[in-house]
């Protein structure tokens, strides 16, 4: 489903000597500079009725700009009837409460049956938005909240917020060991030098900051609230492992589960058999891309995490008696 948009404006005289792509980014802030450069290269931008295909063209001021662009479909993905929960929706965005086990985006090993396929099935016009509107991701086995842009303009504004670290993102995790009451982890994250499917704390990695606060202690485990300042791949999982407290059930970073030497019964079974990393994106806050109103959403812990907490809590009570 293709969509045609037409944009018009006059170049301010103060932009004399500026590049075309720089000027367009100022005139049409609802679209990213990369998108505008693509339209220039595709011959969709006219300056004083002349088609321009070079982003570096210099303007003198006063030119009339007309963009008539065809929004191109992203990728070769198809819509599929994939079940997912939406907790908020308007004309510009929707917020999904993702269940564990659902892959967000098609990729190697998961070519379909992803959230993106489900989004395209339910909202066919998302084919014209980068990554079907997905602005940020959650790992396959991480549950919780993520926002989806329904229009190209909303996508641009949300990506800008994300890059400016303006999203408020709060997670709950169950970690091995007794995590300190609170703290901040500042450690660069990059590809593991040996195990290429893993990320790791590496000197030449990307800047990454994680804030944490322990909400409840069990016998050998901790319920931790985590706030992201940056958003690197596997950031919480890598950072908590880095300080010696990997997430329960994490198949990639968790290693062997740690249990008190005298622990027996239900807690052993619950920890060893928990099928995924114990991580839930509980809270999401952002500025609405159109109204600019600050909005926040919360998601209750899913049933599997609630059950695990109940088992750990019961075990801690028995130990204290």
Any chance you could write out the topology, listing elements then pairs?
Elements: E1 3-10, H1 20-27, H2 33-41, E2 45-47, E3 50-52, E4 64-71, E5 85-89, E6 93-98, H3 115-122, E7 143-149, H4 152-163, E8 168-176, E9 182-186, E10 189-191, E11 199-201, E12 209-217, E13 221-228, H5 235-242, H6 266-273, E14 279-287, E15 294-298, H7 303-320
Parallel strand pairs: 7-14
Antiparallel strand pairs: 1-4, 2-3, 2-4, 5-6, 6-7, 8-13, 8-14, 9-12, 10-11, 12-13, 14-15
Helix pairs in contact: 1-2, 6-7
Q: Keywords, please?
A:
22% helix, 7 helices, 15 strands, four-stranded antiparallel beta sheet, 321 residues, elongated, alpha+beta, nine-stranded mixed beta sheet
Task: Summarize this entry quickly.
22% of the residues lie in helices and 28% in strands. With 321 residues, it is of the alpha+beta class.
Describe this structure as you would to a colleague.
The chain has 321 residues and is α+β, with helices and mostly antiparallel strands. It has seven helices and 15 strands. The chain has helices at residues 20-27, 33-41, 115-122, 152-163, 235-242, 266-273, 303-320; strands at 3-10, 45-47, 50-52, 64-71, 85-89, 93-98, 143-149, 168-176, 182-186, 189-191, 199-201, 209-217, 221-228, 279-287, 294-298. The strands form three sheets. Strands 5, 6, 7, 8, 9, 12, 13, 14 and 15 form a nine-stranded mixed sheet that branches. The chain has a four-stranded antiparallel sheet with strand order 1-4-2-3. Strands 10-11 form a two-stranded antiparallel sheet. Helix 1 crosses helix 2 and helix 6 runs antiparallel to helix 7 (303-320). The chain is elongated, with a radius of gyration of 23 Å. The termini are far apart.
């Amino acid at each position: 489903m293709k969509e045609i948009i037409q944009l018009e404006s006059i170049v301010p005289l103060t932009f004399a000597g500026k590049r075309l792509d720089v000027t367009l980014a100022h005139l049409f802030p609802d679209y990213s500079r990369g998108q505008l450069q693509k339209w220039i290269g595709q011959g969709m931008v006219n300056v004083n009725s002349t088609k321009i295909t070079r982003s570096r063209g210099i303007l003198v001021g006063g030119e009339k700009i007309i963009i008539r662009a065809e929004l191109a479909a992203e990728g070769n993905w198809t819509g599929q009837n994939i079940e997912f929960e939406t907790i908020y929706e308007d004309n510009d965005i929707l917020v999904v409460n993702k269940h564990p086990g659902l892959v967000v985006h098609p990729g190697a090993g998961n070519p379909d049956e992803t959230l993106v396929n489900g989004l395209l099935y339910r909202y066919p016009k998302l084919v014209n938005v980068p990554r079907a509107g997905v602005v940020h991701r959650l790992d396959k086995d991480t549950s919780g909240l993520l926002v989806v842009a329904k229009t190209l303009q909303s996508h641009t504004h949300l990506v800008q917020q994300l890059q400016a670290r303006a999203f408020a993102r709060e997670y709950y995790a169950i970690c091995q060991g007794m995590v300190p009451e609170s703290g901040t982890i500042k450690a660069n994250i990059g590809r593991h030098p040996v195990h290429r499917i893993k990320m790791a704390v590496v000197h030449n990695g990307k800047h990454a900051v994680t804030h944490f606060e322990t909400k409840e202690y069990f016998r050998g485990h901790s319920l931790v609230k985590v706030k992201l300042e940056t958003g690197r791949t596997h950031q919480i999982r890598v950072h908590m492992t880095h300080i010696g407290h990997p997430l329960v059930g994490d198949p990639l970073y968790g290693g062997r589960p740690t249990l008190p030497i005298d622990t027996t019964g239900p807690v052993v079974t619950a920890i060893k058999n928990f099928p995924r990393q114990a991580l839930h994106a509980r809270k999401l806050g952002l500025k609405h891309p159109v109204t600019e109103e600050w909005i926040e959403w919360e998601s209750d812990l899913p049933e599997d995490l609630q059950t695990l907490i109940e088992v750990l809590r019961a075990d801690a009570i028995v130990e204290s008696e």
